[in-house]
Amino acid sequence: MTDDKAYSAELRLNQLWNHLGPIAAGGGNGQRLTVYSTADQLVNATSDGNLTGLASPAGYIVAGAYLISGRLIATQGPGSVTQAAGFTGPATSHVRISACWFSNGGGAYTTGAAIISSLAGGISTPAFSTTVQNYWDFEGLVVFTAAGTLNMVGHAASGTNTWTAGSYSFLTLETAGQTS
């Protein structure tokens, strides 16, 4: 007579694995996704434009709760002025993303820390020093009520006071409730 314990354990493990698969409709797709840029991008438009490589792929966002985190590298061009960076996306019922700017070789800026409460686009940055590399750390929760694409966006204070979104900036999305 053969031992069925090994088979029984394998069967239970497979059932558990299948249970942990994609979340049911309306609960997200149960996966973590990180996207990143592979090249610097000059930001010179005075209205929000998508930052290349920093968007969820089509079909990834469905109605449901998502954790969001990441880092945007930004290098100030001519002029020490405020710029703007933020997010746009499908309809939401709840957005709470904490965000703070840091200067390379310095510390946290006393201005620019924010709790982002909508996906309405770029919010003001601190006035960066010319040619200084800075980074924006963000982390929070977004509850989408519709499917669509989440984009990281930015715009310049003027066409002459530009900035550069740095390569290997990244954005991570994960369905809330998904274990990591």
Care to describe what's here?
- By secondary structure, this protein is mostly beta strands.
- It has one domain (5-175): Jelly Rolls, CATH 2.60.120.
- The chain contains 1 helix and 12 strands, in the order H-E-E-E-E-E-E-E-E-E-E-E-E.
- The chain has one helix at residues 5-19, and strands at residues 32-36, 41-43, 49-55, 64-76, 84-88, 92-103, 114-116, 120-124, 133-144, 151-155, 163-165, 170-175.
- Strands 1, 2, 4, 6, 7, 9, 11 and 12 form an 8-stranded antiparallel β-sheet that branches. Strands 3-10-5-8 form a 4-stranded antiparallel β-sheet, with no helix packed on it.
- The longest helix has 15 residues, at 5-19.
- The radius of gyration is 20 Å and the shape is elongated.
- The chain starts with a helix and ends in a 5-residue tail after the last strand.
- Residues 22-28 have low confidence and may be disordered.
Question: Topology of this protein?
Answer:
Elements lengths: L4 H15 L12 E5 L4 E3 L5 E7 L8 E13 L7 E5 L3 E12 L10 E3 L3 E5 L8 E12 L6 E5 L7 E3 L4 E6 L5
Antiparallel strand pairs: 1-12, 2-11, 3-10, 4-9, 4-11, 4-12, 5-8, 5-10, 6-7, 6-9
Throw out a few tags for this protein.
single chain; mainly beta; Jelly Rolls; eight-stranded antiparallel sheet; four-stranded antiparallel sheet; 1 helix; 44% strand
Structural class: mainly beta
User: Would you tell me which CATH topology applies?
Assistant: Jelly Rolls
| Biggest sheet record | 8 strands, antiparallel
- Globally, the shape reads elongated
Number of helices: 1
User: What gyration radius follows from the Cα positions, in whole Å?
Assistant: 20 Å
**Percentage of residues in helical conformation:** under 10%
The figure for the number of domains is 1
CATH architecture: Sandwich
